[in-house]
Amino acid sequence: MSTGSEQEPTVGTGFPDTDRPGLSSQEVEQLKAQGLVNVSQDQTSRSLGQIIRDNVFTLFNGIILTAMVVVLLTGQWKDAVFGLIIIINTGIGVATELKAKHTLDGLSILVASDYTVRRDGRNLTVPHDAIVKGDLLWIRSGDQVPADAQIIDTYGLELDESMLTGESRTVKHKPGDQVYSGSTAVSGMALAQVTAVGADSYAATLTAKAKVYKKVRSDLNEGINTILKVMTVVVIPLCLLLIFTQMRTVGGFQTALATGAWRQAVVSAVAGVVGMIPEGLVLLTSLNFALAAIRLARHQTLVQQMESVETLARVDALNLDKTGTITDGGIVYDDLYQLTKDLPAQQLRQALVDVCAEESPNATGRAILKGMDDPHPGRAVSRLPFSSARKWSAVADQSGRIWYFGAPEVLLASQAGRWPQVDQQVADLADRGYRVLMLASPDGYPSTDQSDYFTSSPDLPGNLKPLALITCSEHIRDDAAETLAWFRQQGVRCRVISGDNPATVAAIASKVGLTGDRAPRAMDARQLPEDTAALAEVLEDVDVLGRVLPDQKKAIVQALHLKGHTVAMTGDGVNDSLALKEADLGIAMGNAAAATKAVAQLVLVDSRFSHLPDVVARGRQVMANMERVAGLFLVKTVYSALISLGVVLTGIPFPYLPRHITYIGALTIGTPAFFLALAHNTRRYRPGFLKRVVTFALPSGIATAFIVLAAAWSLPGLLDLNLARPGDLGRWRSACAIILFCMGVLVLTQVARPLRSWRGLLVLFFAAVGVIGALIPIVAQFFAISLPTGPALAATVAFALVGALLMVLAVLGYPACARYIRQVTHGR
Description:
InterPro entries: ATPase_P-typ_cyto_dom_N (IPR023299), ATPase_P-typ_P_site (IPR018303), ATPase_P-typ_TM_dom_sf (IPR023298), ATPase_P-typ_transduc_dom_A_sf (IPR008250), ATPase_P-type_domA (IPR059000), HAD-like_sf (IPR036412), HAD_sf (IPR023214), P_typ_ATPase (IPR001757)
Shape: elongated
Transmembrane segments: 56-74, 80-98, 227-245, 265-291, 629-654, 660-681, 693-712, 732-749, 761-786, 792-814
Number of strands: 21
Subcellular location: Cell membrane
Number of helices: 29
CATH superfamily of the domain at 301-327 and 478-612: HAD superfamily/HAD-like
Strand order of the largest sheet: 8-21-20-19-9-16-18-17
CATH architecture of the domain at 301-327 and 478-612: 3-Layer(aba) Sandwich
CATH topology of the domain at 301-327 and 478-612: Rossmann fold
Main location: membrane
Protein name: HAD-IC family P-type ATPase
């Protein structure tokens, strides 16, 4: 009968004998009917509907779609080509995020394991989702605990609970202890009663807080949305004024409605509206994010939200989980410290190999055997294998000496205080982050045949003499030190946050050079203040935190935010999910829990920390290049708004058509911007993206608007054009469009600098394509472009030259004007 205490498993049956009957079949069916089954609705990533909704229903799409529908209602479908931007932009966003979802869902599929439960007095094998609350569950070595349970009987059960607590050391459990789903049994066995299933389990409760989808903050998108919001306020009244003005240019509302001229008036008004919306910038941003995500995917880095490649470029605080990030969870042998001069070191090394050379050695034994290359096993006459219940193992060699190997505090438990120097050395090594083991032998061992010694004497003798200390440590990833050095050089402050002992974590952090030449400053998280502001102050002087609880990890991220930091967080356990969600950028390892990967924005599929520098580089490329090309698009917004205002105030027809702006934008903004955005650029991120873009766009946009309006007002008089005649109106608009094209090339020249490279050739190429396109009849006809001749050509060239001079003066003079305005504003 089971006694509720530690027992040796019954040999041969696979399960110990117990008279506990477990649930009856009738009770199981009743519990199933009540829904108390181990099934939880885990959503590993965003649904298809969420992805489509977030990419379709945007402010940008709404504005462009409205403008396109208005133009289509007029029957002028050629002027509605700009609407294709919606389809392309949305398609890129949806396709990229669906690819990420597919990959994530594939990573998150759990192996469907079967478990043994005791029902009706028999042991039955059932699938994971057939376990019910109240079941008696057998937990065996290698099993992942499928539901929360309370230990009834234990047979040396040890659990790895790092996924839940962050603590890498295994935990030994006794009857009455609670165990949680997500833990893994590393040795022993237990019979436990299930106390919580499905969504009620500890792991599910912990991750429920992290399941709410959070959009990644993006400086680029925020800047673009700010522009769109401002332009929305400007566009609506300006659009109405443009329609009113354009109706008047064709004879007023009655005439326009009677003759159908209202269609052309509406198209002209839309030309101004579309020009004010930086539609290509939205498309290019999505495309750039998508291409960066594709490139990163080739390096085993899954981007779940496209904006994530930008966010890491802004990160200045990186919180690292020790296990799985700096270490890989493996154990390595470090050294043997001889405690006696009575025996040669070679004999101690040989004894250590013999005691570890079991038929199926545990992880520590394998690490020691791998680290001890010279001695060869095979001299053991008798053996008592390692047991997690005993915490020690032993062998008898051919000379009759008995060697004991295990934890120092266990081997010397009956001799407390007898070996103070040894105790101090053990403590010192443990403080340096080592896992310390001991090799010992009885004082005055008998030199007789010991082949049956462990059968007759299986207990630990009380006269053990410590002979050597053996140190092991967690295996540090080969790329950890190099990666951390890269982050230090880039000005990113890295902190290690772990559930382990702070001394152990600090020792590992020192080995990988977390803080360079300076020793890392460590602290026990149990001493951290609860107040967020006080915590923020403390963190400024801390590099390593140990004994950290899941809620504390989240609080640490919040405290860093309070100091204005952009925070990234790595993790692999369920205990990391709350902090990953709270961080600006959550980074999960590929072997992480499904819930952890679900809330992360980046997943390192092969769990290699060394991929992060490449992610940073991609993010910086996106940020630096998009800032460069955003100026191109915003110049168009500025001059379109000013030209529209000029048209409203003077009552002239709009100087170009929507198809003109599509042609000019494609050749001087959209397509060249695509190439410029993909150029190599690792400039460190600087805050103030929108301010710098506006500073560039204002002078160029003002100069462009002024010269186009000047041409629009002057050309009818200079060339004797009657804008009421369709032919003269077409030539006038073509001339204005050509001048606008020339100004666009000048703006492109500014953005592409330095020109003594492929960038200069890029500008020349698109300038040539624009001219050649106008000479091709089918292109000229579709885009309503007619090249001027005679006086019209001379006037167009003259305005283009004046525009170039004005552009130079505006670009050079604007900074000085801005400084003067700031001085006046601040009273200097």
